[in-house]
Amino acid sequence: MTIYYSLTFMLLAAEMATFCVLVFPLPHKVRKRIFGFLSESAAVAKVAYALRISFIFVAILFVDALQRMFRVTAESELAKQNGVAHSGNVQTENSFAARKFYSQRNTYLTGFTLFLSLVLTRTFSILLELIHTQDEYAKLKGTGASGGDSTKEVSELKAKIADLEKKDRDFETLKKQSAQQAAEFDRLATKYNEATGANSSKRD
Asked: What are the residue boundaries of the Bap31/Bap29 cytoplasmic coiled-coil domain, all occurrences included (predicted)?
């Protein structure tokens, strides 16, 4: 794996760890302090700016990996049509299989990194909004204010909380889909390893 794809993998691992921290059930006070620090710290803002620039390069890598995957797939299909893949040349078969596997791996790697960056950004904004809404609701509940306007505001806040909880469930669905895609990637890798092992045994 080249250096830029290794860095992309490290970025993906960091995103996964950050996502687990964000969705981990924490007490309201602890979560409020963490999100307050992340949203107000100047150092965190500089890191976020650097990450935005890095995601531009990841997007370029994703487009390049996608083009390579399509090109390698087309070459593999053309080779099958011409009978190269069935000519008995094990080295040629392994070469096509390896190129196809690496191109798919790079596409999945960069694609997951970009997808998770969008999920993290949206999850952070939703949770931050939820914290502010819970604080406002606690203030209104603590003051014991009465009247039609206060009742209306409380109803609106409850509706906001219900909407945010619905969005949180949607992100749980996205997380499950990401896990399924990762399982599919592992299946492709296992299939490739089995195919390579079978070809190696034929040569022996």
From this structure: 152-201
**Residue 61 belongs to what domain range?**
3-203
The three state secondary structure string of 66-104 is: HHHHHHHHHHHHHHHHHCCCCCCCHHHHHHHHHHHHHHH
User: How far apart, in Å, are the Cα atoms of 56 and each of 35, 52, 63, 92, 122?
Assistant: 25, 7, 11, 35, 18
Contact (CB, 8 A) for 54 and 103: no
> What pLDDT digit, counting tens, does each position of 40-61 carry?
888 888 888 888 888 898 899 8
In the numeric block, which tokens belong to residue 67? 């083009």
**pLDDT tens-digit series, residues 14-44:** 888 888 888 888 887 888 888 888 888 888 8
Determine the length of the chain. 204
Cα–Cα distances in Å, from 1 out to 8, 58, 102, 105, 172?
Answer: 10, 15, 9, 10, 31
Residue 144 DSSP label: T
Q: How far apart are CA 112 and CA 175, in angstroms?
A: 11
Q: How many domains does the chain contain in total?
A: 1
Q: What is the pTM of this model?
A: 0.58
Q: How confident is the model at residue 88 (pLDDT cuts 50, 70, 90)?
A: low
